Amino acid sequence: MAHPLKGITILEMSQGLAGPFSAMTLADLGARVIKIERPGTGDESRSVPPFKAGKSACFAAVNHSKTSIALDLKSEPDRAVFERLLARADVLIESSRPGAVERLGYGWTDLHARFPRLIYGAVSGFGHTGPDAKRPSYDLVTQARGGLMSITGHVGGAPVRTGASVGDLAAALYLSQGILAALLDRHHTGKGRKIDISMLDAQLALLETAIAITSVTGTPPAPGGTRHPTIAPFEAFQAADGRFVIAAGNDVLFEKLCVALNLPLADDPRFATNPARVDNVRLLKRLIEAVTIDNTCAYWIAKLGAAGLPSGPIQNVDQAMRDPQILARNMVVDVLDRNGRAAFKAAGNPIKMSGIPDATTRRAAPDLDGNRGEILRWLEE
Amino acid sequence: MAHPLKGITILEMSQGLAGPFSAMTLADLGARVIKIERPGTGDESRSVPPFKAGKSACFAAVNHSKTSIALDLKSEPDRAVFERLLARADVLIESSRPGAVERLGYGWTDLHARFPRLIYGAVSGFGHTGPDAKRPSYDLVTQARGGLMSITGHVGGAPVRTGASVGDLAAALYLSQGILAALLDRHHTGKGRKIDISMLDAQLALLETAIAITSVTGTPPAPGGTRHPTIAPFEAFQAADGRFVIAAGNDVLFEKLCVALNLPLADDPRFATNPARVDNVRLLKRLIEAVTIDNTCAYWIAKLGAAGLPSGPIQNVDQAMRDPQILARNMVVDVLDRNGRAAFKAAGNPIKMSGIPDATTRRAAPDLDGNRGEILRWLEE
Question: What is chain B's mean pLDDT, rounded?
């Protein structure tokens, strides 16, 4: 069967992470993605280590399955190529500073007048409106200013950055959603729309519990270590050989946990309800660890798992990449080189859809301008 | 103009965070969402603190703009209501343990045979395939097992949980994407599809740089504090009155930073390229802080901003919710109560789309079974 986005062409005039990641998720759904890069250096991610055979693994991780053409949008011949591409495309993704494409004559208003079916997906640090629209940003600025960093870290310690670039990635995932919604909308209206995604907005959209706590109590949450702010027990616990996590998200699970640990707490008013457990969370942790310290992580994960309780190991990325469940789900794929040999590893497509093949490899990330001839020939078709 | 999902009806038979958050994002795009809850207790999030006037702020944050009907799917009259809803719906979202809906006769195979246009969106801890398909999970288990926790925390310290529930939310955002792609696909095929999202898969999909590092170097990254693992300078720096962040993601920005700080490092071979800066990141940090320590965060953020450099404050959630840029983008909205008065705050919709109104309020989160009469009347229409 055909992939859902078969026949959809996306021009990705972007670099870094947010725009390329969004386009990659749409490529995994079947879209053709043509990457439009600056002549000379191309996407700045091409210079991000680590490298293998001179190529950036980080670039490959989010730019596989695309083709590349280098265009100088201040040169007339390249502008003509770009405009022929726009005429064939369904979607333009761009992540330049607001105002930059307008100066080239390729802002939303101009493009919508000339290519009314084209969907225009913009992702920027702060969005195209508001006092800081023109400020530059990166993931770290988003995580810091957006509040996520302030709730991440050890209890009593300084805020830390979340190890994955969720400032970029949340924006990327919302951009993909917006583009898909606009494609649906176009079935009814025949017209494209502009989607204006701000990394800062997208970061704020992930703070559901933190916003709820702040607005009701007046006090913003601080870093909580491994603990959830409003559910207990829901954190890491010490075992004989390390730490593992238990997440008992409701009263039924807490009762099961008490049985599995042989801890008579389920009828204790200090722990009988989730709000009571949250109020007494430090005492609860000490009582649980008095039991878990006597055996290994593996012992407790097996025992709690058999009792139907959510628990698990704290795995490093190497362990996660070898996890039997991850492998069974085809979530680590090979990115090929130009000769069809496995060159890099990348995450698979988490959108598993009935009747749609879930490939175990990905086409090579393109060399800069590596597909110019093929793209120009396609324009002649 | 009409919202992109106007006319689309979604049944959300889910609880907690992932399923409800996905349905909420689709409600923000214009879909009608009917929440189907267990009689008696309903969604377990209803008992998650903090509360206001007896209602959970966390529940309201992700369940506004929906209606609710309580159905016992083991009772024949309620099954009849559910089946009439299925006949009217475009999408079913469910997040039960794999096998649970099958036992009720409402698994994908049965539903697809009876309601061939229905799209079936499932989100679960580990997905519907693989050795751990039937294990229960929660956000914390996903963050721990999926590797994100292992790369988050202070340098040399123990892993911590990311303060937002990205284990749930990444899965939710992929589910929304999958549902939108399936709606597009249905325009061509006339048929619904099953989407099978695993929280663990979705978590792995966010580890682009970490997977690249692990697979090329053989060594998984450890917690990096505020620092990006492969870009420098890209971390928090000490000023006279606290810390702020600088993210100089390429050589041009690094040169601008050297000028702004009056630091003659841009031609130094230890710092001339991003890979060299990453190799010498600790020395680079000391050299930068020798300058930044002499003035305040606000001074440096203004000075670097004027020089076109990405930098910013580390804000707590209260500060983020009052940030002029956030407010200008309508990213903090009022969730109303049943009387139309502002009751809770929630994040706005980060998908800003041309021609689509961006409301500043949201309809109240429903009481359990609070819309039964209205839903039954709608079925008669």
Answer: 96
